[in-house]
Design brief:
Layout (H helix, E strand, L loop, with lengths): L1 H15 L12 H4 L1 H7 L5 H4 L11 E4 L3 E5 L5 E4 L1 H10 L7 H4 L1 E2 L14 E9 L1 H6 L4 H15 L4 E7 L4 E10 L1 E7 L2 H4 L3 H4 L11 E7 L13 E2 L8 E2 L8 E6 L10 H32 L1 H30 L2 H17 L2 H7 L2 H29 L1 H17 L5 H16 L4 H19 L5 H9 L4 H10 L1 H8 L7 H10 L1 H42 L14 E6 L14 E3 H7 L11 H8 L14 E6 L11 E3 L5 E8 L17 E5 H11 L3 H6 L2 E2 L3
Parallel strand pairs: 11-19
Antiparallel strand pairs: 1-2, 1-5, 2-3, 3-9, 4-8, 5-7, 6-7, 8-9, 9-10, 12-13, 12-16, 14-15, 15-18, 16-17, 17-18
The protein binds arginine and glutamic acid (GLU).
Length: 708
């Protein structure tokens, strides 16, 4: 009898325990989320996730480099993150003779670990709600923030403090950080594992990528941050994660603990319309053209393919995300859902005269400002897509113009000037194919002019008229004139500044770049900033209004690259008619995708051998398969790459690295039906390290449970 009622209670709870949207601030979990997390399967206390004074999971999580998350997985400072997060470092240690990207790398001991100048790992030591001091303090917001930072720095001199706005400035949180600056590369699988499927599989489920790499934090003799030094020793973290190799099952609770970068969950429907109907399609169109050109060249030239792999990946990453975002917003009726919510917002206000006088106007004002922003935002997007991202030589010339200005203002001498010029030109020519860039210019400008019409800068229209709209000819001149041929492609430091500047100013690339920059800086940017200011002010009011009007609801702040917890459960999804995705992938899929000789889906011989002979050892699941990736309904975004996926005990079961593209609109409008984050299964990571990498000594360093 008792058994039965327990079972019923369990069923009841698990029915209630549907997944939740949101990326939650650790210091408010107890108040906002604890009951729900427990009902869904969290078995540890919130204090074990985040506690200011006591050691908690937060002490194992770091900001890795500029925009990723990483976590401590041993008592000797071992750090786990994604392969695509460590990519730059792995690449920087690679050469033709010693190609770590292709072959992978496993340091056999501490001496073999590779240093990475500039790479940092930052711990969050404390977070404190300082809204009252900042919002109600005596001075301006800026002055109050400074006062808070000064007070906390006095109290905790070993940490660095910043104060960040949440909910568009309705809340302020002070964050105390500690940054370690000696972070060494310990291990990485070959790209054929760590980047398996490359751009074709990027943002896709089902996925078979072993997207991980391993680093180690070093500290001085007192375990404190220090610049790189031979004498530094492995850092002893306050906390490192236990790895659970017992795996997960469908329906299991998971949480992702990391640093989501940026979301816009509280935009009015109108602005989401602009994004999906104007901004995304315009950016996608330019990138469609760029990617098609590059793809053709990369498929016919190995040289171009090698040079452009990383650039192609960068252009394709956002491009694919925007396409997914548009489909997702449409399919989930995201705009209508927002409109319905706005209708309800207005309806409730009508019954509350006092609130109505505070918030009644705000949606109309936002509408007005977002509408007046459209032309400026469009020009700005095109400036970025065409003048900065699209044509590499234009980006370089834009920066050369700034270097020339500083020189003409007398801020640098001849030698310094030519040195900066030389550096900028060298960085353009690194991994550069001028033919491809010329083709890019000829391709994107007709799109730019056609779409921007009257908004096109006059000087660009003049070029268009002079060449009778023939951009192939413009591109030919731009890449064939004296400046580009002599001063750029054949640059040498003996060139006299005067001659260089004269040639630059007469060049076609100068005319195009200077025209766009001039137009942007003088006409667009000031208006853009003015309107953005007004929008920020009204978004703040709107956010406050939403929280007050819908006071029965729970609101999470938009991502702002601060430490957050997202939670949900392991589950598949069914994004289109007749398609239902399973939650897990295994070794079989790696072999199904294998295409010998293809740069995205090739596999190394020794790896194939292990897979074909099913050498999975203790890392296999109950059915004898090797688990590779899995998906959950955890709300994540860019920046969550490298975040640990933790089970109900707070043990690491997976490593977050992507989202399924049908759900990338979660940055604008989360939908539990189709938003899934993608993780590498911890067992796959352990297996690759152990069985393929032969780095069992790293495994010995980790705390692993659930292995038999
Ligand atoms: N889509 C993932 C993230 O934004 C992974 C990107 C790196 N991988 C790649 N194939 N480009 O950003
Ligand atoms: N790959 C992303 C990153 O680098 C994470 C995927 C996402 O956007 O959710 O942060």
């Amino acid at each position: 009898m008792r058994r039965i009622s327990l079972l019923l209670a369990f069923l009841f709870i698990s029915r209630l325990a549907f997944a939740v949207e949101g990326m939650w601030v650790p210091i408010f979990l107890e108040k906002l989320n604890a009951d729900e997390m427990k009902a869904m399967g969290l078995r540890i206390s919130i204090d074990e996730i985040y506690h200011f004074n006591n050691v908690s999971l937060k002490d194992a999580i770091v900001i890795f480099g500029g925009g990723c998350t990483g976590e401590m997985i041993s008592s000797k400072g071992l750090l786990l993150t994604n392969h695509h997060c460590g990519y730059g470092q792995i690449q920087s240690h690679s050469s033709v003779e010693n190609d770590l990207l292709t072959n992978g790398f496993w340091a056999k001991n501490n001496e073999e670990e590779l240093k990475n100048p500039g790479l940092t790992a930052t711990f969050i030591r404390m977070m404190e709600d300082v809204s009252d001091d900042v919002i109600n303090g005596e001075g301006s917001v800026g002055e109050n923030i400074k006062e808070v930072v000064d007070r906390l720095t006095g109290q905790y001199p070993e940490w660095e403090f910043e104060v960040k706005p949440f909910y568009y400035g309705n809340q302020y949180i002070a964050i105390g950080k500690q940054t370690y600056k000696d972070v060494r590369l310990v291990g990485a699988p070959p790209s054929s594992i760590g980047k398996y499927g490359s751009d074709t599989d990027n943002w896709m489920w089902p996925r078979h990528t072993g997207d991980f790499s391993i680093f180690r934090i070093y500290a001085d003799a007192d375990n404190n941050p220090a610049d790189f030094n031979e004498n530094n020793v492995p850092y002893i973290p306050k906390k490192h994660l236990t790895i659970n190799a017992g795996g997960v099952e469908e329906g299991d609770f998971t949480m992702v603990f990391g640093f989501p970068g940026s979301t816009q969950q509280y935009l009015p429907a109108r602005e989401v319309e602009y994004i999906t109907e104007i901004y995304n399609p315009e950016r996608i169109e330019v990138r469609d053209a760029l990617l098609a050109n590059l793809d053709k060249r990369m498929r016919t030239s190995d040289e171009v393919r090698i040079k452009y792999a990383a650039k192609y990946a960068r252009i394709a990453n956002a491009w694919k995300k925007w396409r997914g975002e548009n489909i997702g917003i449409r399919e989930s009726k995201g705009i209508q859902r927002k409109k319905d919510m706005e209708f309800e917002f207005r309806r409730r206000l009508l019954n509350e005269p006092e609130m109505n006088s505070t918030y009644g106007y705000v949606l109309d004002s936002l509408s007005h400002y977002y509408a007046s922003m459209v032309p400026y935002a469009r020009v700005r997007n095109y400036y970025i897509e065409v003048g900065i991202q699209g044509v590499e030589a234009m980006r370089a010339v834009r920066e050369l113009i700034l270097i020339v200005r500083a020189y003409e203002e007398g801020n640098v001498d001849d030698e310094e000037f030519m040195e900066s010029v030389g550096k900028r030109i060298a960085s353009l020519k690194k991994d550069y194919a001028a033919e491809a860039d010329q083709e890019a210019l000829a391709t994107v400008f007709p799109i730019y002019i056609k779409r921007l019409g009257d908004l096109t800068p006059q000087r660009i229209l003049d070029v268009n008229n002079n060449y009778k709209g023939d951009w192939e000819a413009v591109a030919e001149d731009a890449f064939g004139d004296k400046f580009f041929e002599k001063m750029v492609m054949n640059f040498n430091e003996k060139i006299k500044p005067k001659k260089f500047i004269k040639a630059l100013k007469k060049s076609v690339l100068f005319e195009l770049s200077d025209a766009m920059m001039d137009h942007y800086n003088n006409i667009v940017a000031p208006n853009y900033a003015r309107i953005q200011n007004a929008i920020n002010k009204h978004q703040k009011t709107y956010m406050a209004g939403l929280m007050e009007v819908f006071d029965e609801k729970r609101f999470y702040p938009d991502a702002n690259f601060t430490l957050r917890v997202s939670y949900g459960k392991v589950e598949g999804f069914a994004p289109v008619d007749a398609v239902a995705y399973h939650w897990q992938t295994t070794d079989t899929g790696i072999l199904e995708k294998y295409i010998p000789g293809d740069y995205e889906f090739d596999l190394p011989e020794d790896f194939l051998d292990l897979l074909e002979n099913e050498r999975f050892g203790r890392y296999a699941n109950a059915s004898g398969r090797l688990p590779v990736c899995f998906i959950s309904s955890n709300h994540t975004t860019g920046g969550n790459s490298g975040s640990p996926a933790l089970n109900g005990d707070g043990h690491l079961v997976g490593l977050n690295f992507d989202r399924a593209w049908e759900g990338t609109m979660s940055d604008l409008n989360y939908d539990i039906e189709r938003c899934r984050n993608i993780m590498v299964d911890a067992r796959y990571i352990l297996w690759v390290v152990d069985a393929y990498g032969g780095a069992g000594y790293l495994i010995d360093e980790m705390d692993i449970v659930g292995l038999d």
